[in-house]
Amino acid sequence: MNPAYDFTGQVALVTGASSGMGLATARAFAQAGAAVVLADINEPALREAAGELESAGHRALAVACDVTDEDQVAALVDQAVAAFGRLDMAFNNAGIQIPSSDAADEDAGVFDKVNAINLRGVWACMKHELRQMRTQGSGAIVNCSSLGGLVGIPGRASYHASKHGVIGLTGSAALEYAPRGVRINAVCPGTIDTPMVADMIAKGELDRAEAAAGQPIGRLGHADEIAQAVLWLCSDGASFVVGVALPVDGGYTAQ
């Protein structure tokens, strides 16, 4: 059973919200009473996701956004505040995975792309969310890192660089903004059963059985398990939690 949260009257923003962990988190925020701003680069899937929430009686706003474009990110936050009057919580989740590669052979374009989305995108989102939260004097931000932000794995250097960067970004900003009433943390998912992971499995980039066996709990994680970690970090239950990189990985990083 998941814990119950009451975010009535609050506003949450979720990037990468059209599927996977982002959609699960948007649903969870909405079910807890928050108005939810869903952002994604995949506009048709985004509209469908927001429509699902609205059909269930929730307040939702879909905003197409490429997080690598800071102007679009600034407009996203502006639209959220224009629609709902404030911004209380954010899950900066938009990210990509890249194929495994020998570190000596990886193309610079691949490095630039994964860091543009996974790191610079988180930086841009957090920057503009903080401008609103700084004015309010309150807020909670959760940035999406990965178990790849805590450990190294052969063949994953560029991806892990982006996710390690998210943790450094989170920790420094958390120290800067804790005295101003804004809590910033990161969540570090393990291998989660999402469309992105399913795509990796279909392409032969990941073996499902091996991935499950590699997590001490013996299975892949579920998107709603990440959502519940995000909601906790945004809730009053985590009011003294600042600057953490929380593993939600079935024990992978505890080995």
TrEMBL record:
The keyword Hydrolase does not apply. NCBIfam families: PRK07231.1. InterPro entries: KR_dom, NAD(P)-bd_dom_sf, SDR_fam. Its EC number is 1.1.1.47. SUPFAM superfamilies: NAD(P)-binding Rossmann-fold domains. Keywords: NAD, Oxidoreductase. The lineage of its organism: Bacteria, Bacillati, Actinomycetota, Actinomycetes, Streptosporangiales. GO terms for molecular function: glucose 1-dehydrogenase [NAD(P)+] activity. This is Glucose 1-dehydrogenase. Belongs to the short-chain dehydrogenases/reductases (SDR) family. It comes from Actinomadura rugatobispora. It is an enzyme of class 1 (oxidoreductase). The keyword NAD applies. Residues 10-190 form the Ketoreductase domain. Transmembrane segments: none annotated.
